[in-house]
Structures are given as structure tokens and as C-alpha cells.
Amino acid sequence: MLEDLSCHILDIAENSAAADAETVTLLLEERRRENWLYLSVEDDGRGMDEERCARVYDPFFTTRTTRRVGLGIPFLRQAAEACDGELTLTSRLGEGTALRASFRLDHIDRPPVGDIAATLVTLLAGNPRIRWIYRHRVDDSEFLLDSQELLAVLEDPDMLRTPAVAEWLRSYIAENLEEIGAGGESIAQDQKS
């Protein structure tokens, strides 16, 4: 079972990369005044037909050849529903896929946000030619990371794979998430370690 939302984001975003997405947009939104946490991952990859889209909720269905089960989306759906939320998945062949999940923010069973900075660095380093857009909102504050802007400075996508850039990027993301109060007090501390 994936223990925090950052692991779910990594799993879902890797599916987007495997679907030949050129752009993947990730959103984590904490609406504290309304007591909701929203997660979405959208891509412009190959997409899925209706039959395959319906089967992703089945834990014994996966397109990966490295394992026999696909537990990521079923576990995320279960976690969302356990927290009075829901998970929806829409997809169109040739257009892409969008996954959205919601969680009651103060629910005792809500998974922690986890180490978003490490997840983003992993995605950027693993797939530097994909345009990754990450937006994290906490009520009226927002942090936005667009890999296209990073590449405008770095010029070479493979620079995202270097340890020095990865470490700087992880610190930069963690500091900005802490600045907007993302994930509450404990999450900011988790990302520093």
C-alpha cells in the first residue's frame, strides 16, 4: 500500500510518462477554510478507451509487464472514499487522461501529503523531456513549478539528472512549500529531512 499522497502522485505520473505524455500537470490544493484536499493529475498522453478506463479500478488489472497487479489507483480510490471524498478518472484515446481525488482534510484516515519535493525531483530527473507543471495551493497562496522554465535556464534537459541540480531543486521546492504552509507543520519538516 502506498503510504502518502506523494507516492500516489509518483505512481500516477509515471503512468502518464509511460503513456507518452508530453505535458503532465499536477495539482495539490488544500482548501483549509472548506476542509478539503484535492489532488489531480492530467496528461496529454495516449489516453484509454472506455473499457480500459473502467478496468483501472480493478486491482488485478495492469498494463505494466513488471508486475501482475495494479494497486495504485484502487488504493487511492479507497483512501479518498474512506475520507468522505471520491476519485474520478476520465480519459480519451489520443487526448490524455485526468485523475481527480478529494479528501476531507481533517479526516483521521487521510494519508499525509508526504515528500512532494523528492517526488517532483524524481519525476523531473526520470523524464526530463516531459513538461512537468506542479501547482500547490493553500487557500490564497500558491507555489508553481514549471519544468519548461527550469529548462530555459539549464538549456540541457539532462542537467535535471545531475546530483547538484537535483539537490538544489529539492531544497527550492521544499522551501517554497513551507513558505505557503503546504501540508501543515509536519509535512514541511518531512520534506527537510
Description:
By secondary structure, this protein is an alpha+beta fold. It has one domain: Heat Shock Protein 90. The chain is 39% helix and 24% strand. It is built from 7 helices and 6 strands. It has helices at 5-18, 50-55, 72-82, 116-126, 147-154, 163-179, 184-192; strands spanning 23-31, 36-43, 87-92, 96-104, 131-138, 141-146. It has a 6-stranded mixed β-sheet. Helix 6 packs antiparallel against helix 7. The longest helix is centred in the C-terminal third of the chain and has 17 residues, at 163-179.
Q: What structural keywords apply?
A:
disordered C terminus, 6-stranded mixed β-sheet, Heat Shock Protein 90, 193 residues
